[in-house]
């Protein structure tokens, strides 16, 4: 945490300096890595002049959003080991276009982390430029990954978390692993662990997406349907996840856990029996309102279970 009246005052000066650069559109947001949080910040700033879509919004919503993001970042700052907030140093950074020096700030409580990989993100400031950067390269494999799931009967139980699955997890029969689901790396791990029990389990946020099936190629989408798709139902996402598993698999797991569930307590849809490859399509950075939930999930039909490897 910033300590001392002078340091705190200089931090506020830096904040006001950057906000003024945002407002007169002279700020440069530089790229030094591909961390998805940095990509998100740049994406918001690149669209800063887009006008509002709704009367209740500010005139330039992305300007307000970007300033809010920075002010939230500045609220709990500390100075990194290689920078100070001494008067001369701060004045040079704010006034000299030719200074080679950056002031590097980091979050002082819990750190500020990349939504994708969980790495610490630092903010560097130099006159009319800011850089959001991570010390390690971002692992973007968590944004787009595939999960194979078998539906042997084609009768599929679906919901955010079908009845009885929490108890199965408590009994250790199924597991989401121990990843931190605040980051895509953790949600990816949870999906991978649940797939070991032949369960599709993906994080979608509080989006209540539709479940769609296309008969011509047996494709499935969770989210937008698209041409040729039929809506089979809607996920309630109070828990921010979607879950799908074959009814046969579901009943066997319940039996193994000695858990009784009424048939009226779960929802079932019919798809073509076989193996499906689900792809998570995380949209973070593509749209200013996308954070670390998947924009949609799609699945291709791989074929009958006994014919695919």
Strands side by side in the biggest sheet: 6-14-15-10-9-11
Shape: elongated
Could you state the order of secondary-structure elements as H and E? Answer: HEHHEHEEEEEHHEEEEEHEEE
In the predicted model, the low-confidence regions spanning at least 5 consecutive residues are 284-293
Query: What's the overall average pLDDT, rounded?
Result: 83
Percent range of helical residues:
25-40%
Number of beta strands:
15
**Largest sheet: number of strands, sense, barrel closure:** 6 strands, antiparallel
Question: What count of domains describes the coordinates?
Answer: 2
Instruction: Please tally the helical runs, counting DSSP H or I stretches of 4 or more residues.
Output: 7
What's the end-to-end separation, in Å? 54 Å
Strand content: 25-35%
Structure write-up:
About 3% of the residues have low confidence. Strands 6-14-15-10-9-11 form a six-stranded antiparallel beta sheet, covered by helices on one side. The chain has a five-stranded mixed beta sheet with strand order 1-5-4-3-2. The chain is elongated. α1 packs antiparallel against α3. 27% of the residues lie in helices and 27% in strands. The termini are far apart. The chain has two domains: 130 residues, no CATH class; 168 residues, no CATH class. With 309 residues, it is of the alpha+beta class. The protein has seven helices and 15 strands.
